Amino acid sequence: MAPQPAPGGHSKGDYPWWLVALVAIGIVLAVVIIANDIYAQVFRTVFNGVGVTIFVTLVGFALATLLGLGVALLGLSDSVALRQISRFYIEVIRGVPMLVLLFYVAFVGAPGIVAAYNFLTGPLIQAGFSEPLMVRDFSLMWRAIIALMIGYSSFIAEVFRAGIQSVDQGQIEAAKALGLSRYHRFRFVVFPQAIKVIFPPLSNDFVAMVKDSSLVSVLGVSDITQMGKIYASGSFRFFETYSIVTYIYLILTIGLSLALRQVEKRMRRRDGR
């Protein structure tokens, strides 16, 4: 009998040789970085952007998750108008490339927000109680975070919608019969079951955002990619620089993927699967 696939797409008898190979390559590269002054200097420079990359990813994904959940709930509303608004938002945002959305938010949306703020606070500004907001006061990093939030929220909304709709309708009807409010039905009946379906694709989106956070470098935000671009343009050591950039991103994405996979396995064990 053929071995049955284990959670994660591998057979139970499979040994993760791919992971062993990656770890071995990672150790070799770490030794090279320690032993070679050029690689060590590149690593120190590029590593300065890790904090920004992590911050942009965590904040952007948290905001995208909240916005995506809100859009998904609108799409599941009893109101036809709200459902149409949700679908309109999802289809439009999903159809715009992330880089284009980043430029649009940074150079069209941000000035629009500043102009709207100055218009609304005009009386306070004229009275001397407030200062007008300048476009340059709107941080480029926060423009990038807002763009990632908007872009990913459309995909996350579909993840939440699919997960919520996967819950058996009979259980929802039973919760209604018990007199639970809409909020309590969602909190105690729907969401605990939906999260089992939601978590795997949601974790994939999280890993994807780590990679897409590199797009913020086009705005000059000092993330990993931007620090690499600055060093490479000044030293002309493109091979060494982008090898280190790739190395750091692989550490972040593969490490995060493995951690999230362990969380998913624990959830399955807890449910007795």
Describe this structure in a few short sentences:
With 273 residues, this protein is mainly alpha-helical. The chain has helices at 17-35, 37-47, 50-75, 80-94, 98-120, 122-126, 140-165, 169-177, 182-212, 224-235, 238-270, and strands spanning 5-6, 10-11. It is flat and about 70 Å long.
Key traits:
transmembrane transporter activity, AA_ABC_transptr_permease_3TM, MetI-like_sf, disordered N terminus, MetI-like fold, 273 residues, transmembrane helix, 1% strand, mainly alpha, transport
Care to describe what's here?
It is a single chain. The protein has 273 residues and is mostly helical. The chain has one domain: MetI-like (MetI-like fold). It contains 11 helices and 2 strands, in the order E-E-H-H-H-H-H-H-H-H-H-H-H. It has helices at residues 17-35, 37-47, 50-75, 80-94, 98-120, 122-126, 140-165, 169-177, 182-212, 224-235, 238-270; strands at residues 5-6, 10-11. A two-stranded antiparallel sheet has the order 1-2. Strand 1 and strand 2 (10-11) form a beta hairpin. Helix 4 (80-94) packs across helix 7 and helix 9 (182-212) runs antiparallel to helix 11. The two termini are 21 Å apart. Residues 1-8 have low confidence and may be disordered. GO terms for molecular function: transmembrane transporter activity. It is a multi-pass membrane protein. Keywords: Amino-acid transport, Cell membrane, Membrane, Transmembrane, Transmembrane helix, Transport. Residues 50-260 form the ABC transmembrane type-1 domain. Belongs to the binding-protein-dependent transport system permease family. HisMQ subfamily.
